[in-house]
Design goal:
Number of domains: 1
Shape: extended
Strand content: 25-35%
Radius of gyration: 25 Å
CATH architecture: Sandwich
Structural class: alpha+beta
Largest sheet: 4 strands, antiparallel
Strand order of the largest sheet: 1-2-7-6
Number of strands: 7
Helix content: 10-25%
Order of helices and strands: HEEEEEEEH
Number of helices: 2
Distance between the termini: 70 Å
Length: 168
């Protein structure tokens, strides 16, 4: 299976699209989100990240998403949660919605984890629409190493008095 194409600014575009959606909703609550949304406008599930002793716990709301429709991956210290929420069968075309706030389609969240975290540190479960990821030892404090800053005296800058006098 070929490696997926790397798109380094995708999360940034998703962030801007979500901010634009919130602005549209605030200015026109009845109209926002009616048009179909593409990948750059994908819905962004909410998350909580907290520490419990030395472990890190990540909870992500994925109501209506089946475990087979979610993929977790870890690459270079970044945990990627992505997948898709399919529309339910009761989503009937031709009906007039009074309120339509639920989002369907692709989603993605990326979370930077401590460098020392590997796949062996991660356990995930999805129950009642809540994805919980346990990062064993993810909140443990590790000793920081201080780096000395060298003091240097800057060399004097030669000033050409004659050229400055001619510029006046």
């Amino acid at each position: 299976m070929p490696a997926p194409k790397r798109r380094p600014f995708r999360e940034l575009f998703d962030h801007f699209a979500e901010m634009q959606r919130m602005r549209e909703y605030a200015s026109h609550p009845g109209d926002a989100g009616v048009e179909p949304r593409g990948h750059e406008h994908a819905w962004v599930p909410t998350i909580d990240i907290f520490a419990s002793d030395e472990d890190l716990i990540i909870r992500c709301e994925l109501a209506g998403v089946e475990p087979d429709d979610v993929e977790l991956s870890l690459s270079r210290g970044v945990l990627l949660i992505h997948g898709e929420r399919e529309p339910r069968p009761d989503q009937v075309e031709g009906v007039s919605y009074y309120v339509h706030e639920r989002r369907f389609g692709a989603f993605r969240r990326s979370i930077t984890l401590p460098e020392r975290v590997t796949n062996e540190h991660l356990r995930a479960s999805l129950e009642n629409g809540l994805l919980e990821i346990l990062v064993t030892g993810g909140a443990a404090e590790h000793e920081r190493q201080r780096i000395e800053i060298e003091r240097r005296n800057p060399a004097p800058v030669p000033v050409d008095v004659e050229s400055q006098a001619g510029e006046r």
